[in-house]
Amino acid sequence: MRRPFIAGNWKMNTTRSEALDLVQGLRQALPHGNSVDVAVCPPSVYLAPVAAALEGSAIGLGAQNMYHESGGAFTGELSAAMLLDVGCRYVILGHSERRHILGESNEDVCRKVHAALTAGLIPIVCVGETLQEREAGKTSDIVAEQFFGSLAGVSVADASRVVIAYEPVWAIGTGVNATPEQAEEVHGNLRGILASRFGAAVADQVRIQYGGSVKADNAAELLAKPNIDGALVGGASLKAAGFAAIVQAAAS
Ligand code: 13P
User: CB burial class (10 A; 0-12, 13-18, 19+) of residue 21?
Assistant: First the structure.
C-alpha cells in the first residue's frame, strides 16, 4: 500500500511573512495522525525560515528546483547539498513551468534527478502534456518520452525513491482539472511503464501524484482512483484551510 503524499508548490507566490503565516496556519489546520506524507515547497529564499518554522512538525520541506552540479561557478544556481543543508527532503524537478517557460529539456531534468538522488534528496519528477498535444492524441507518447528521458540511467534501487507528478499543462492554474478518469488513465500508463523500466516491485512502490487545479472539492474523487497516490497542489496550497482539506481527503 502506497502512502499518500500531498505537496504544496507555492511557486513564486508568497512573501516571507505570507510563507511564515501559512506554515503557522498549516501547523494548526493539518489533521493529526500520520497516514499521509505532507510537504511544502516555498520559494528558495524562504526555505531556511520556513524550515525553522516547521521544526517539530511532520510537514516536510521541498525546493522547487536545483542545479545538477555540486558546486562551482554557476551564478544564481543552488546545489542538492545546499538544499539538504537548509532542511529539504524533496525537490520538484522538471515542472512544466520550467520546461516550457525556462526551456528545460529532459536531459537537463535527468541530470538534476541523478544529482538529487546521489545527494539523498527525493525528486518529484513532473511530466505532462500540453492541450495541443492532448488534442493531437499524443498524451501517452509525450508522457512516456518525458518519463524515460527524465529517468534515463536511474538504477532500480534509486527509482524506488522517486516520486512522479503527472501535471497536464492545460490543467495547471486554469481551474480545469483533469477528470479522475483522464488522470487515472495516464497514471495507469505510468504505472505500466514504471514496471517495464524498473520492475513490478518498484512500480508498486513509486508514488504518482496528480497536479493541476486540485482543490478541496475535487481532491477526494481524484485520490479515490487506484493509481493516484497524492497531489502536487499549486494555488490551493496557498491557503491553510484548503490545503488541509486536501490532506484530509487523502487521509480518508
Ligand atoms: P495549480 O494547482 O495552481 O493548478 O498548480 C498545479 C501545479 O503546477 C503544481 O505544481
Answer: middle
Q: Is the CB of 42 under 6 A from ligand 1?
A: no
DSSP character for 129?
-
39 lines ligand 1 (CB under 6 A): no
d(CA 232, ligand 1 centre) in Å: 7
Ligand 1 atom at minimum distance from 174 CA = 4
Amino acid 252: pLDDT: 85
Name the helix (H) or strand (E) containing 163.
strand 163-166
pLDDT on residue 20: 98
Q: What is the CATH number of the domain that holds 212?
A: 3.20.20.70
Range of the structural domain that residue 170 is part of: 5-251
Q: Where are the alpha helices (DSSP H) in the chain?
A: 16-29, 47-54, 80-85, 96-100, 106-119, 131-135, 139-150, 156-159, 180-198, 200-205, 216-223, 240-251
pTM score: 0.98
Ligand 1 close to Cβ of residue 218 (< 6 A): no
Structurally, the chain folds into a number of domains equal to 1
Q: What grid cell was written down for 106?
A: 529532459
Has 95 been annotated as catalytic?
Answer: yes
- What is the three-class DSSP state of 210? strand
234 lines ligand 1 (CB under 6 A): yes
Q: What is the pLDDT of residues 44-102, one digit of tens each?
A: 999 999 999 999 999 999 999 999 999 999 999 999 999 999 999 999 999 999 999 99
> Closest Cα to atom 2, ligand 1: which residue?
234
